Input
Amino acid sequence: MTSSEVRQKYLDFFKFRGHAVVPSASLVPENDPTTLFTGSGMQPILPYLLGAPHPAGMRIANAQKCFRAEDIDEIGDNRHTTFFEMLGNWSFGDYWKEEQLAWFFEFLTNEIRIPAEKLWVTCFEGDAKFNLPKDEESAEIWRKIGIPESHIYFYPAKKNWWSRAGIPENMPVGEPGGPDSEVFYEFTHVEHDPKFGAECHPNCDCGRFLEIGNSVFMEYKKTASGGFEKLKQRNVDFGGGLERIAAVSENKEDIFSIDDFSSAIGLLKEKSAKKYSDSYHTKSFRIVADHIRAAMFMIADGVEPSNTERGYFVRRLIRRAILHLDRLGIKENSVVDVAQSFHTIYRMKYSELDSRWNIIVGTLKDEEKKFRSGLHSGFKELTARIRELVGRIQPKLYYQTVPTFIEITGKDLFDFYASHGLPAELALEEIERIRMGYSEKIGPFSDSKKKKMLDEFATEMQKHQEISRRGADKKFKGGLADTSEKSIHYHTATHLLNEALRRVLGNHVEQRGSNITPERLRFDFSHPQKMTDEERKKVEDIVNQKIAEKLPVQKIILPKEKAIQSGARHMFNEKYGNEVSVYFVGNSLETAFSKEFCGGPHVSNTAELNGTFKIQKEEAVSQGVRRIKAALI
Output
């Protein structure tokens, strides 16, 4: 069954059952600064899961474009893709477990014609720490539907609990979540690989099972006390991978064998004169197809390649695809050809591919041209470096055993990056390929070796950034040790802390200094005595409440006098220019919870401050000045 047929059958199935079919949201989240990309169907509809009325009603369904950056390193196996379509249906306080599980079973067995005996299910085993019960209700429903007891497994929260933050411990205050029940397809022709354990089971990684759908029963919300309370309404949040369901409809364990990829894989086979079935090249076929498809959709949604944030991932996808095109022997001007094969398939479903096609083509061509200009010389130097090392260690390769360890360091990776723009991950892949090409006896680098090299690269990169920062005329202020994501989080938290202290202790509180690292924040303030435990708790609660409220963090540039008149806090011993930047936390300057003179950087929304704000220590610094050390945990 084609992917288009599966998609349409799914949407028609749930439309017949009273669901309004809504369009896919953009890959760039709207009003959700907590994540770079839309990675699940529920992301765009989170407000409705929390109780806001959806304009289309209490039942909706769609096929949502998704991108998961964390899956980039997994690409090359037979089941992962960075971009995918997620089939979803939701109940906002309407139907519950019995309808949801029965409908999904009916869809799979009647509409997609999947044999029921190939389906296995998993349920939540409960969590005593958080007083979360075992989901026997879902298991009993599956038994009534016809799933045999031997095909029902219970797993802990790591496998069968869903929230955007993961397991219950990691959920911030106010985050919704709940137990889930997953459905797996069994490839009975695939033998269990004992290296993954003595016995096979649905969550085994040997390849015999493939997850195809997940029904989340969202009925809990994390509280400020660290426990859970029931949401005002019980919600169903279902997500199922379109590509995976299409693959199992034909009993194929390789999702790259479905029709969505057939044109791209066929084009690559033709251009390379290589076989997809040749295990030496299979990974490259998959990476090229996946990465170019993902980059095309991201550019269509307005993401431009760059070295930061979303643009970094587009650039990394394109460059990694080019590297693997080279490995297939496919040279210049091929990226757009592969994108064209996907455009033909998806243009009728996603009109943005047509409206932005010229931009997509221009961007892909420009990125390929820029990367290839440094790619050849970079890999040439890298290959020469490896041969030099091998020759020095083993000058007579034709009769001696090739060394299993060739000393390429993280500093070498950084040199290749600085000189040729060669990303560390790509250079490491190429080093491994060249190294293994000397002998079948040489296996891939161990995970610990890869980590060591990438850590060394990160250290060299940090040194470079520190040198650059020292020459940037103190661009970043506010006591930050660096501009890492965590430090920026803590910098924003100091603004919340400053205002919370004033509200609890009084208007005499003034900032006297700060020091921020990726591990914690340190904040000095004027106050004549030690804070009581009650005062500390009140300050913590205020900060955590503002994080939970998901307030925007905004910047405005004002004449200094006008900024002072607005009530923005500032250091009285600091010299400011005629114009100052004011960061305020809230929807407007007038109603903001906090507003301060500041040069940044900050998060764009308090929701990004993942974790619970906790004062770890409060002590005296000098007469009338106290110091707080705090962290997000």
